[in-house]
Design goal:
heterotrimer; A alpha+beta; B alpha/beta; C mainly alpha; B: alpha/beta; N-terminal domain of TfIIb; Dimethylsulfoxide Reductase, domain 2; Barwin-like endoglucanases; 36 helices; 28 strands; 32% helix; C: mainly alpha; Formate dehydrogenase/DMSO reductase fold; 11 helices
Chain lengths: 185, 929, 295
């Protein structure tokens, strides 16, 4: 089943408490400047104030994957999680330019610019992907950001669970369109 | 010492283990941390021991549960505690980044002493001996009252209780903590209205509200409470936000009442006026359960919405709409926090809120009540356990009877205890407060009258921050004047660096709350067991152990620890549980631990256990919890359910008859307070053996079934009336609604002379400082930081999320002053005049935003490291200064104190903002005059 | 299926830096020089100008590639990137992978071409026939590389590769002529005429590009207005349009009329400056769109 995030814009619930950002840094141990999830605020202080947590949405047709020159970005077959292989990533930054959501993050590189790309892994891979024996660390796909989200703005899980939630929130007709673009595998 | 030697050994072992494991590369993720950490998954795969330990967040008072992940004795990660009945695993940024706070090499690692301008590492033995000797010397020279002890709301119930007991055994009431400057007016306001000064309902219960009116900003100060508030919203609740600022809470609300800081009462009265004139009040509730409606009605009718509009600036239409929404959507709950309490009229603000809820009939029911959100993780517990200068634990006060009661609990002679004090009068006199201790230090300089033989000569800050205290200039001068300053904290609190002094400071490293077990009471009176997660890091020690060691050094250790065999449980079970009868804090620790084990049986809607060993219990056994069978009282004053199920009534605290001759006993089964045998009398709070089974079986409430008081005849304003802030921008209103007289409660109150009206007359009417300082100052919180920020500003994760201290200023005001977003600005005020320092200013970044209306500026208060535009981080011990620093907003907070409790005013002052380096002429002229 | 979304300026985005801008410029000049050399050779005899173009192309392409490598994550990534066939495997969808291949082949052909011109000249016509399409491909690809990043609206237009091709040709010709330093007007005439025509095309194409890119939405309008009237307006109007295009057009026109070639190197330098500015404007003036899905 594809794993998906859902960001509920109809009920603009996010408070920007930062729980998602902080727990992601604690859990995945990303270094300074790398945010696998970020909260974006627009119209701050206006009646239309909106906060928006932005993780990687694990798109059906990930633009980052298509532009990656080295096939370092791949979509896992079994659950559709988009991951990056740091052995093959060369840090060209093309994915950053191609991603509409700002998911690719770059640590500091050798020459003072970008290093390798790091992105949300649905919590299956921590920042350093390998343990000391060189084995790839694989964890359960349980994003901590969605688990700690105080207001339930950020949801994550299997696509069918998400679409059930979505139908509950925005109704069948509207959710069908969204599901087709976002949730089908 | 043996303890620390052992710890060193353990750590060097870990270091070896880490190197062998090849985890050296991890250093770069914890850029600011010197602690070696294991990669948790590798550890898991390697078959090493990984534990998940249930524990409670150490930051705010929501009391969120967290699972701490521990591998090989090291805290490596956290996981959401998804069964926790309050937060269901949800966390905000502070809770989610705790490992970075605990595994942090900016912590204070060992005791330190400042000598000849240099910090020197000393041993625990040396530190404690020196502190004890100095204390005894001061006692010899000036008497026991020359020491001020600042306790903490960031320690467990056990440590807080021991702090109070320590000062009682030392022989002084000069002990206080954050609650003084946080919710002391809540205790006075709600206590004087219906008996107990605590949040009446709980976070989960807010789900049942049909309307919620906010008087603070929980979206930033208590984000996880929004888990429940959103549930209410989802079910159709109306959210109304009353806040001078368009806060994040306001952004989520349906209606925003943007009033001028310090005008809460006219706003509430405007709403109440509508309720009364439209007949929307709950007549039956008022008739049966309250007293003094006619008095309050008389006052309220003087504040029609139009008058309220004139004072508050909220359009009358909006006030009317708010009243209509509240009347049509019942039950509704009212939420407030420091925005309402930190005023001269704090007590009366809170009483006004309570009266609004009584008129609506929203008090004492599920989905209603007055929800006072408290600040620190255990501020409710520390308040209950009397880390206050005006009471012994459990609100017994300081009367002879109270001392005798506690002497009995402690197993010491009352005479011996009295002998520890300078005199019987001082034993029963309220002590120095957190907001005014510095005036007691500086009494000679300021000429203020003091209510004790000598000024304060030594201070112990046990987990209290400096940035939260108003008037930093005075605090700094006081810190410089003390003979000795002792600071006990896991981090180096800014009090260690703020004073320009070369010696006489001792720092003791307390461990954090995850390094020692204990109970913790959240805002909703729910007591939770907080497990120890790891052993104390470095050479730090638990608060309880330090207090006991110090008591031994001072020579009363035997008496102090008489009842304790097993620490820390015995502190709760053998003393708190036995003595704290006024609030019936009689949960046993084994019940709390059992609840923790069976966390999954609690219903999130009701917080009640369904089946299992805890069947029928409420989560956290909120007090009053009369005995080991009692399920706790999650919602205060519900009289429709039996006492055995968590029912009771408004307290019959003021006798059976009011001064006007009307009865104070409830109209439904009313009775006076009872002895354990059922006869009227105060025996319920003095008997140390009863478990109230007989009374509860008869459905009698031990403290009686009384009425809520609209009319509190013992207060200077029996019914709240509007009083302009001391420093008001509207002098014409101040003439009509002047602030309190000086010395409302006598020459000295809490041992210091209190001024109010005279400051207003001098500064506003004579000097007209509002012309030089036209902007209204208000302060508040940032979601990423907590309290004085010593911990959160050293946490690399939180610092990355919020690195800035700023002043929020409306685009109009900014444009008038030529200030652009991001500019460095100075915020000036007329503070420090007590010592002839006629202007204070701070240097911060400007944040131009429409969050604040024109004429108001907002500053977060968590910051330290700069004082009046000058950085002082060089005075921190090496390697301990926080990652980010900023100016302290309270440097420019106004004067003014609530006469009842000495609450400081930090929410409505006057200031002026200019570009950095610019001092307007009007300010110069005022300073020279 | 369309979904509702809101587009805003990407807050605090990391941009591509000067390395990429300079690479695109050098790649353009190099491919332009290669095309110039190949066309010269194919149309006429092997001349000094053809040799200059052929000699110029390989070092420029090499320097450009080195700049590209410098932008990568580290030494390891650089070494890996040099093994183009092994690393850049995603030629089916990624313009960067295709580009790496194109660049590699072009570079090899350019070196062979230069070598053959310098030595026995036996295969130079064949190599010129190969170099011509490869040069065009390289010039086009720099534009396609930017276009491939779909969420930078300033780049997201089919005109961009053509614009870059034009600019590559003008700068390539200018650089070749500058290096060849041929003094005789008669030998230069054809080149100057071609350059003038291309510059005239560019003079229309460049402003037009920024004016019509607004169709790509608010963000594109924002970046275009920053270039046309905002922070980058001096670089655009003064340096690129006036110094880099108008002055050379007038200068070349003057030279073509008066047949006095003395001031030509200055005009060539200005054309190069204009090309450089154009690339920097495109890389630094780009604003990344941030799409907020309104689900």
């Amino acid at each position: 089943m594809p794993k998906k995030f859902l960001l509920d814009m109809y009920v603009n619930r996010c408070l920007r408490c930062g729980g998602c950002m902080a727990v992601c840094k604690t859990h995945n141990r990303t270094p300074e400047g790398v945010h696998r999830i970020r909260v974006i605020t627009f119209d701050e202080g206006e009646p239309t104030e909106t906060n928006m947590p932005m993780p990687c949405l694990h798109c059906n047709e990930p633009p980052c994957m298509y532009v990656c020159p080295t096939k370092a970005i791949y979509k896992r077959k079994e659950d559709g999680i988009v991951l990056v292989n740091k052995d093959t990533c060369i840090g060209c930054g093309y994915c950053l330019m191609a991603c509409p959501f700002g998911a690719p993050q770059f640590e500091k590189g050798t020459f003072g610019n970008r290093g390798k790309m790091d992105k949300c892994t649905f919590c299956v891979e921590p920042y350093e992907q390998k343990d000391e024996q060189g084995r790839l660390i694989q964890r359960e796909p349980k994003p901590r950001c969605a688990m700690v989200c105080a207001t339930g703005h950020l949801l994550a899980g299997d696509a069918d669970e998400i679409s059930a939630k979505l139908r509950e929130r925005v109704g069948y007709r509207m959710s069908r369109g969204v599901e087709k673009t976002f949730l089908t595998f | 010492m043996a303890l620390s030697a052992m710890k060193m050994k353990r750590r060097s072992f870990l270091k070896l283990a880490a190197a062998a494991g090849g985890a050296a590369t991890l250093g770069k993720y914890f850029k600011y941390s010197g602690v070696e950490l294991f990669e948790p998954v590798a550890a898991q795969e390697g078959g090493e021991k990984v534990e998940l330990i249930k524990t409670i967040c150490i930051h705010c008072s929501v009391g969120c549960g967290i699972l701490a992940k521990v591998a090989n004795g090291q805290l490596v990660d956290i996981e959401p505690w998804e069964n926790h009945p309050i937060n269901r695993g949800r966390l905000c940024s502070k809770g989610a980044s705790i490992p970075a706070s605990i595994n942090n090499d900016r912590r204070l690692k060992y005791p330190m002493k400042k000598e000849g301008g240099k910090w020197r590492k000393i041993s625990w033995e040396e530190a404690l001996t020196e502190i004890a000797n100095k204390m005894l010397e001061i006692r010899e020279k000036y008497g026991p009252d020359a020491i001020f002890f600042a306790g903490s709301a960031h320690v467990s119930n056990e440590a807080a209780y021991l702090q109070r007991k320590f000062m009682a055994f030392w022989g002084s009431n000069n002990i206080d903590h954050q609650a003084r400057i946080c919710h002391s007016t809540t205790v006075a306001g709600l206590g004087n209205t219906w008996g107990y000064g605590a949040q009446t309902n709980n976070f989960n219960d807010m789900r049942h509200a049909k309307s919620i009116i906010f008087f603070s900003n929980p979206a930033e100060a208590h984000p996880v409470s929004f888990y429940h508030i959103y549930k209410a919203k989802q079910r159709g609740a109306v959210l109304i936000c009353a806040d001078p600022r368009f806060s994040r809470t306001a952004a989520q609300s349906d209606l925003h009442l943007q009033f001028r800081p310090g005008t809460d009462i006219p706003l509430v009265w405007g709403i109440c006026y509508e309720l009364i004139t439209n007949g929307w009040v709950d007549e039956e509730f008022i008739r049966l359960r309250t007293h003094g409606y006619e008095y309050v009605k008389e006052v309220i009718l003087q504040y029609p919405p139009e008058v309220a509009e004139e004072i508050t600036g909220v359009p009358a239409e909006k006030i009317k709409l708010a009243a209509k929404l509240l009347a049509e959507n019942r039950p509704g709950t009212l939420q407030y926090a420091m925005g309402a309490t930190q005023h001269e009229v704090g007590t009366h603000n809170i009483r006004a809120f309570a009266i609004l809820q009584l008129l609506l009939g929203n008090a004492a029911k599920s989905g209603g009540g007055v929800n006072a959100f408290r600040g620190h993780d255990n501020v409710q517990g520390a308040t209950d356990l009397g880390v206050l200068s005006n009471t012994l634990p459990s609100y017994y006060g300081l009367s002879e009877g109270a001392w005798k009661h506690w002497a009995k609990v402690w197993g010491v002679d009352y005479e011996w205890l009295q002998g520890r004090f300078a005199s019987k009068e001082l034993m029963q006199a309220k002590g120095a407060t957190m907001s005014r201790w510095r005036d007691l230090v500086l009494a000679e300089e300021t000429g203020d009258k003091i209510g004790q033989p000598t000024p304060i000569k030594m201070a112990i800050f046990w987990g209290h921050s400096t940035p939260s205290q108003a008037g930093t200039y005075l605090v700094k001068k006081a810190l410089e004047k003390l003979e000795m300053l002792v600071i006990v904290d896991p981090y180096v609190e800014s009090a260690a660096a703020l004073p320009e002094r070369d010696d006489g400071i001792i720092l003791l490293p307390a461990c954090t709350n995850w390094e020692y077990p204990g109970t913790v009471t959240n805002s909703s009176r729910q007591v939770q067991w907080r497990n120890k997660v790891i052993d104390p890091l470095y050479d730090s020690k638990p608060d309880v152990e330090i207090l006991i060691a110090l008591a031994h050094k001072l020579g009363f250790g035997e008496e102090f620890t008489k009842n304790f065999k097993k620490l820390p449980e015995d502190i709760y079970d053998k003393e708190i549980r036995v003595g704290a009868r006024v609030i019936a804090m009689r949960q046993s620790t084994w019940r709390l631990k059992r609840q923790q084990e069976y966390d999954y049986v609690f219903n999130i809607e009701t917080l009640r256990a369904e089946g299992g060993p805890c069947d029928g219990e409420y989560w956290g056994l909120p007090w009053p919890c009369w005995n080991d069978e009692h399920p706790g009282t999650p919602i205060l004053y519900r009289n429709e359910i039996p006492v055995a199920e968590g029912g009771h009534d408004f307290r019959a605290k003021w006798g059976t008859k009011a001064p006007d001759g009307k009865t104070l006993l409830s109209g439904i089964n009313g009775h006076a307070e009872l002895n354990p045998d059922g006869t009227p009398g105060p025996g319920w709070k003095l008997d140390l053996t009863t478990d109230y089974k007989k009374l509860i079986a008869a459905n009698k409430v031990p403290y009686g079934r009384g009425r809520a008081r609209f009319w509190a005849w013992n207060l200077p304003d029996p019914v709240p009336v509007h009083r302009e802030p001391v420093w008001t921008p509207r002098p014409e209103l101040a003439r009509k609604y002047p602030t309190f007289e000086d010395k409302v409660y006598g020459e000295t109150h809490f041992r210091i002379e209190t001024k109010g009206r005279s400051i207003q007359e001098q500064d506003i009417f004579e000097k007209e400082i509002h012309k030089a300082y036209p902007l209204v100052f208000t302060s508040g919180r940032q979601v990423e930081h907590q309290g004085g920020g010593a911990m959160t500003r050293a946490n690399p994760i939180l610092v990355e999320l919020q690195p800035d201290m700023y002043v929020e200023i409306n685009p109009k005001d900014a444009n008038d002053r030529g200030i652009k977003d991001g500019d460095v600005v100075w915020v000036h005020t007329y503070r420090g005049y007590e010592l002839g320092h006629y202007r204070s200013r701070i240097q911060v970044k400007a944040k131009v935003t429409r969050r604040v209306p024109p004429g108001v500026v907002f500053l977060p208060f968590h910051w330290a490291g700069m004082f009046e535009t000058v950085e002082y981080t060089q005075r921190f011990p090496e390697g301990t200064k926080p990652i980010v620093i900023g100016e302290c907003a309270n440097t420019i907070s106004p004067p003014g104190w609530a006469p009842e409790t000495q609450m400081q005013t930090t929410k409505s002052g006057l200031c002026e903002v200019t570009k950095a380096g610019v001092i307007p002429e009007a300010i110069e002229r005022l300073a020279k005059a | 299926m369309e979904f509702p979304y809101y587009v805003m300026v990407f807050p605090g985005y990391q941009r591509w830096g000067w390395e990429i801008a300079l690479y695109i410029f050098l790649g353009g000049v190099g491919s332009g020089a290669l095309i110039t050399a190949a066309v010269t050779l194919l149309l006429g005899k092997e001349t000094k100008i053809a040799r200059a173009g052929a000699y110029l192309a390989p070092p420029l392409l090499i320097v450009g590639s080195v700049l590209l490598l410098l932008d990568l994550a580290g030494i390891k990534a650089m070494l890996r990137a040099m093994l183009v066939p092994l690393t850049f495997t995603n030629i089916t969808t990624s313009w960067m992978a295709r580009g790496a291949w194109i660049l590699l082949v072009t570079l090899l052909v350019a070196i062979a071409f230069a070598y053959s011109l310098a030595t026995d000249k036996r295969y130079s016509r064949t190599l010129a026939l190969l170099a011509l399409p490869l040069g065009i491909a390289t010039a086009l690809y720099t534009g396609l590389l930017l276009k491939g990043a779909r969420f930078v609206p300033l780049w997201n237009s089919g005109e961009l590769p053509l614009l870059f091709l034009t600019s590559a040709l003008t700068t390539g010709i200018a650089a070749t002529l500058l290096l060849a330093s041929v003094k005789e007007y008669s030998k230069l005439r054809g080149f100057l005429a071609a350059l003038l025509v291309l510059l005239l095309i560019e003079a229309i194409e460049v402003p037009l590009y920024f004016f019509i890119i607004g169709e790509q939405g608010d963000i594109a309008v924002k970046s275009a207005s920053a270039i046309l009237s905002g922070a980058y307006s001096i670089a655009f109007w003064l340096v690129l349009m006036f110094l880099g295009i108008i002055i050379p057009i007038l200068g070349l026109g003057y030279v073509l009329i008066t047949r006095k070639a003395a001031a030509l190197p200055a005009f060539f330098a200005l054309v190069l400056l204009g090309g450089l500015t154009l690339r920097f404007l495109f890389v630094h003036g780009a604003i990344k769109a941030f799409v907020v899905p309104l689900i």
